[in-house]
């Protein structure tokens, strides 16, 4: 299906077309480009213009450029503009303007991507849903998501993130959401902010772009909730709160972890209701409650939403759980892996440790015949001047009482490692690469294993190393 014609794209960007084209998608990476895509030659670590010729060879229908790249000519399908990023933003603005979709924006210190995926799941049976496949939430990811939106979309879910002050406001004004949700506010990106109140003010900027009469969904019970509510009431036609406190419109009353599921009791308008999330974690319960509040405020059938929420599970790197079978003949020779290696700050790490603490290892298998709760942790980044103290403080988290051993990688995680009791202190290595090389020797059958860290810490290498222990076909045999 045609996403953009050359005429429409040229009108949106005020660009010049060298020859007519029709595109079916948008890409910024030649490694994942598909035939029919518009290749956008952004400048980042490398200049995208260096890859235009390759993109066209791979089947790109056209390229968005600021000059004719080497290896190309006027005979190639090019859309030439003064500035590629500005033109991409214009394309996103036009994509937003031409659709009648109800647009939802999501931000928060923790849980943005998981909440976006929950919304995709609960809205998918209520209409055509558009949302980014990856965590496209910055100054180029949001325009790409909007520019990729099909005209006939019914619901669009846009994730908006930030690293520095002033980043959310232009993105929410570009998105123009009908509803906006903040998942939570916690100590993250403190390198760029004085304190958590500054983070809250930046997150609250998501309400600046609300359409007239729009809906603001706000977490209640945080120390900065007043800041969020003040901004929400200034810009929203309706404000809905969620959280564990008695004053919340949607109040969490009980969370129960049962194996791989989280069963939640809540109340709204004086009436109790129950919902389930098919992954363990109180933070997933809270995100789910915010999702239910948002979709009901939009007028979506809440009963259908609750049922569809039960079918959602987190994507890889966001807290997903899997069993790694190491022996194709012996089901017991396996361990459970929580892959939460995409991002980390003190709040999300605490939530992940709670999940690990609530998981049940299996005894009677493996070398030591006693299942353990094992954590592999990489540095939490962008925490500012208090980064060393914030890492060390994790040793006092209540979940640590039942976690058996903690392996660490990175200079900041050295502070946590040194703060741990000797009996819980596993290995420490300067880099995740070194820890990954040792990781297969540090786990045993029956263990429950958590891997968590900021993306740039590269702790996902530990996940890769542990997944290599899987015997091909074993999962199908034991579950089949």
UniProtKB/TrEMBL annotation:
Please give the biological process terms from Gene Ontology that the record holds.
Answer: cell division; cell wall organization; peptidoglycan biosynthetic process; regulation of cell shape
Output the Gene Ontology cellular-component terms. Answer: cytoplasm
In terms of SUPFAM superfamilies, this protein maps to: MurD-like peptide ligases, catalytic domain (SSF53623), MurD-like peptide ligases, peptide-binding domain (SSF53244), MurE/MurF N-terminal domain (SSF63418)
The UniProt record lists the Mur ligase central domain at 106-294
Tell me where it resides: Cytoplasm
**Sites where the protein binds ATP:** 108-114
Q: InterPro entries in the record, alphabetically?
A: Mur-like_cat_sf (IPR036565), Mur_ligase_C (IPR004101), Mur_ligase_C_dom_sf (IPR036615), Mur_ligase_cen (IPR013221), Mur_ligase_N (IPR000713), MurCDEF_CellWall_CoF430Synth (IPR051046), MurE/MurF_N (IPR035911), UDP-N-AcMur_synth (IPR005863)
Which Pfam families does the record cross-reference, listed alphabetically?
Answer: Mur_ligase, Mur_ligase_C, Mur_ligase_M
For the protein in the UniProt heading, the enzyme class is ligase
Matches recorded under HAMAP family: MurF
This chain belongs to the protein called UDP-N-acetylmuramoyl-tripeptide--D-alanyl-D-alanine ligase
